[in-house]
Structure formats: C-alpha cells, structure tokens
Amino acid sequence: MEEQIDLVGKAFTDHYYHLFDNDRPALSSLYRPSSMLTFEGQKILGVEDITAKLTSLPFDQCQHVISTTDSQPSTFAGGIVVFVSGSLQLPGEEHHLRFSQMFHLVPIVEGNFFVQNDIFRLNYG
Amino acid sequence: MDPDAVAKAFVDHYYSTFDANRAGLGNLYQEGSMLTFEGQKIQGSQSIVAKLTSLPFQQCKHNITTVDCQPSGAGGVLVFVSGTLQLAGEQHALKFSQMFHLMPTPQGSFYVLNDIFRLNYA
C-alpha cells in the first residue's frame, strides 16, 4: 500500500510538471471548481481562476527539476497528500529558483485524481 | 471553523512544544498518524514521538517564515510552513519546509494525520 501511494504520487507530479513546462493551459484538466491554489501567499479558488493565474505567470518557458517527492494517504476517502521540492529554471536566468509545493489529490473514477488543494512557495536562499 | 486561526494556533503550539519539550508532541498524533521525516516513513504516535525525541540534538529553535493553509474537506486543514531551524552550537541555521494535514477530534481540537518534513538544501 505504501509503495502504491509513492507510485501514484510520483506519476501525478511527473504529469503535472510535464504539463506545466510544456502546455500550461492543459493544467486546467487537473483542477475543479472546488480546487484551491495558494501561490506565494495569493489565494485563488476554482479551475478557471487557477488556470488564468498559472498561464499568466510572467514567463513563457520554464523547466521544473524535481529533487524530492513524498506522498502519504490522506483521508478515508482515498485522498493523497504529495510534498515536492525542486528547482525552477527560467530561460535567460542564470540561477535556478528553488521551490516547495504540496498537493492534496482527491480520486475520481478509475485511478485518476484531481487537485483539491495546491500550495506553492519559492524557497529563498 | 476558521482555517487561518486553526493553522496559526497549531503552528505556534507545535513549534514551541518541539523547541521546549519534544516528548510533549505525543498528544498531537494518533495511531493512524503518518510522519515522513527526510524521506523516512513513520506511523503512529508512539513511533513518531520516538523518532522526534531521538533526533541528534538537545536544543533547537524553529523560526517560522511563512504559513499557508487551506481547508481540505471533511473538516480538515492543510498547513504548509517554511522557516529555519537553529541548532545550539551550529553557526548556520538550517532551512526547512513542512506540511501538516490536521483533522478534527470529537473534543473540538485537531490532531496531525499527515506530517511531511524536508530540509531545504541550497
């Protein structure tokens, strides 16, 4: 059961950051009207506003490099919490930005999940 | 229930207890609680307290930089913390991030269901 949770957490984060780095508008498929994002302290509610925020970030390209992924089962309803740390490379920027992010994933049918909670923070040196 | 108030009260209590008397953290966890500490997975209040009280330092001080929280559904609260950890005798503070998933108890308080801790290396 533990290993299964790790596999699910890793598969989700691989997919999430791949979309973020290659097709940011497609992130809308991972959120719902009830989803919440706190991005550097700014609170955003619902898939539309969250997608608008993420697609309006002031860079066209980026690459996430993930250092650690930790997952745990979260509630009796099959949810999963995932805690990620890594770095974010923006083109033209010499130094990577380090970040931490947590997701609370809630299952939909057939092993798919959506992001109910998302909190992102840069880690300043 | 105001998630911000719950988060603030919890964070204040958790880190002041950690810094003053780590064994006192036991009543914040239950049998089903899970801690992942720098990648090591630990389950249940007893094992978690054993881990935290056996960390290789006597004294420490947490300084909290950011606290973010959101309701998780079913009355739960997710709390995401970043800050620094100063160990006695060490010149440089360690940077860390930690997330908690708090669940309500029948008595009207909260316990930690999920706890994940990571140091943030430069």
UniProtKB/TrEMBL annotation, chain A:
Primary localisation category:
cytoplasm
Q: Where in the cell is it found?
A: Cytoplasm; Nucleus; Nucleus envelope
Please give the biological process terms from Gene Ontology that the record holds: mRNA transport; protein import into nucleus
Q: Name one GO cellular component term.
A: cytoplasm
The segment(s) forming the NTF2 domain are 8-122
Q: Which CDD domains match?
A: NTF2 (cd00780)
The free-text function statement in the UniProt record for this protein reads: Facilitates protein transport into the nucleus. Interacts with various nucleoporins and with Ran-GDP. Could be part of a multicomponent system of cytosolic factors that assemble at the pore complex during nuclear import.
| Protein name listed in UniProt | Nuclear transport factor 2
> Which organism does this record belong to?
Hibiscus syriacus (Rose of Sharon)
TrEMBL record, chain B:
Say where the protein is mainly found: cytoplasm
The record's section on Pfam families has: NTF2
Write down the InterPro entries for this protein, in alphabetical order: NTF2, NTF2-like_dom_sf, NTF2_dom, Nuclear_transport_factor_2_euk
State the UniProt keywords alphabetically. Cytoplasm, Nucleus, Protein transport, Transport
Report the locations given in the UniProt record: Cytoplasm; Nucleus; Nucleus envelope
- CDD domains named among the record's database cross-references: NTF2
- Coiled coil ranges (UniProt) are none
Q: Where is the NTF2 domain?
A: 6-119
**PROSITE patterns reported in the protein's UniProt record:** NTF2_DOMAIN (PS50177)
State what protein this is by name. Answer: Nuclear transport factor 2
Q: Which organism is it from?
A: Hibiscus syriacus
